[in-house]
Amino acid sequence: MTDRPVTTAVLLVGGFGTRLRPLTLATPKQMLPVAGPSMLERVLAHLADHGVTRAVLALGYKADGFTEAYPDGTCAGVELVYAVEPEPLDTAGAIRFAALEAGVDETFLALNADVLNDLDVTEMIEFHRSSGAEGTIHLTPVDDPSRYGVVPIDADGRVEAFIEKPPRDEAPTNWINGGTYVLEPSVLDRIEPGRKVSIEREVFPAMVADRTLFALQRDGRWVDAGTPATYLEVSLAYLDGSIGTDPAVADDAEVDPSASVVDSWVGAGARVEAHVTLDRALILPGARVGSGATVRNSIVGPRAHIGVGAQLDSLTVVGDDVVIDAEAVLSEARVPAEAE
Ligand code: GDD
Ligand code: MG
Predict the structure, then answer these.
(1) Residue to mutate, 10, 11, 12, ligand 1, most ligand atoms under 8 Å from C-beta
(2) Domain span(s) for CATH 3.90.550.10 in the chain
(3) Which one of 105, 164, 171, 234 counts the least CB within 10 Å of its CB?
(4) Residue 148: CB within 6 Å of ligand 1?
(5) How far, in Å, from the CA of 271 to the mean position of ligand 2?
(6) Which numeric CATH code is attached to 8-228?
(7) Is the dihedral of CA 123, 126, 131, 137 positive or negative?
(8) Is the CB of 149 under 6 A from ligand 1?
(9) For the segment 242-300, what is each residue's pLDDT rounded down to a tens digit?
(10) Superfamily name with CATH number, domain 247-339
(11) Where in the chain is the domain with CATH 2.160.10.10?
């Protein structure tokens, strides 16, 4: 076994971002701003700290959103390689497609790029090598494992089962798949080309059967930013000191001095008028909040316009360019509403 540094990461960024609609109707999930920089940039800055120099983006849905944003082919100092799937291939299919496009032939990282964490990736790679694993998964503890891949392990860290999204009362442990993997190139040979293959439902269970899959339990900061609640929460954590102390109001945003802005982020070019109350709000770039309006625990999409005196509450999400009437009262709303 060579001990060459692991410098390539395959990033899964091609999902539809369904749970974050309507924000993801125009913008792919990992291109949404997380209190300024895109989710992708936040992920890559962390990987760069652990020696990653090349990121292969496994693209599908809204691939242009990435290629146009980084025309010089770098992000957070990391070289980008774009691999655009001809059709959605699911998690393993996408990893295989992207890794082959980039000619990956050494140990590499693969990630769900909607996860923001402070994982010691360097330590994880060392654990992967010392156990002689074919693949290693980071595990994180959660209160409700039913939304995730549930992963019991033995005392050596060998994975005993991989159970994707089990019924709530059937999860054998609350340690779940954190979405960061160290993989040997041989994993790619396990993935049938040209069809949808789920790493969680097909590849990992096969590796469990072959006893080649290991996992590392690490209880650090971890969030899957793929829902309005978690996207909001992690964005605010970059402002309040729990992750960082980034500016809560972008340089060229306009906030009237009479507005009350508490635990909130106001993006570039946004305008917050007189006597507005923002409380745990994300006001995305170019949006406008009319005078006297209240935005609480809610997200206002790019260039949307919240009418005078309107009240938004309880994880209301307003999409790009939407106009909300004056005095409207919205709670737990998605505008436009999901057309399913
Ligand atoms: N390129 C490509 N093609 N990417 C995809 C595809 C696809 O067909 N399907 C999903 N993705 C990307 C998404 O953009 C995301 O970054 C990642 O794959 C995972 O998809 P999600 O839709 O976010 O999955 P999840 O959050 O329900 O569950 C996954 O993450 C959990 C941790 O957050 C699973 O891996 C769980 O086992 C895990 O616990
Ligand atoms: Mg996710």
Answers:
(1) 12
(2) 8-228
(3) 105
(4) yes
(5) 31
(6) 3.90.550.10
(7) positive
(8) yes
(9) 999 999 999 999 999 999 999 999 999 999 999 999 999 999 999 999 999 999 999 99
(10) Hexapeptide repeat proteins (2.160.10.10)
(11) 247-339
> Which ligand lies nearest the alpha carbon of 203?
1
Tens of pLDDT, residue by residue over 56-86, are 999 999 999 999 999 899 999 999 999 999 9
Rounded to whole angstroms, the Cα distance separating 52 from 50 reads 6
User: Does 15 contact ligand 1 (Cβ within 6 A)?
Assistant: yes
Average pLDDT in the chain? 96
The number of angstroms, rounded, from the C-alpha of 16 to the middle of its chain's C-alpha atoms is 12
CA of 307 to the centre of ligand 1 (A): 36
Amino acid at the residue 237: A
With b for 16 or more beta-carbon neighbours within 10 A and e for fewer, the 47-73 pattern comes to bbebebebbbbbbbbbbebbeeebeee
Is residue 250 classed exposed, middle or buried when 0-12, 13-18 and 19+ CB atoms within 10 A define those classes? Answer: buried
Distance CA(41)–CA(35), nearest Å, equals 11
Round to whole Å and give the CA distance between 266 and 282. Answer: 6
What residues contact residue 303 under an 8 Å CB cut-off, 6+ apart? 285, 286, 287, 320, 321
Tell the residue nearest (CA) to atom 18 of ligand 1. Answer: 12
Indicate if ligand 1 lies below 6 Å from the C-beta of 157.
no
The residues assigned a catalytic role are 165
Distance CA 170, CA 172 (A): 6
CA of 112 to the centre of ligand 1 (A): 6
**Is 224 close to ligand 1, i.e. is its CB under 6 Å away?**
yes
pLDDT for residue 3 is more than 90: no
Ligand 1, residue 90: give the atom nearest the CA. 8
**Chain segment 144-201, per-residue pLDDT in tens:** 999 999 999 999 999 999 999 999 889 999 999 999 999 999 999 999 998 999 999 9
How far apart CA 55 and CA 53 sit, in angstroms, is: 7
> Helix count (H) and strand count (E) of the chain?
6, 25
The closest-lying atom of ligand 1 relative to the alpha carbon of residue 178 is 32
Name the CA dihedral angle for 328, 333, 337, 338, rounded to a multiple of 10 degrees: 180
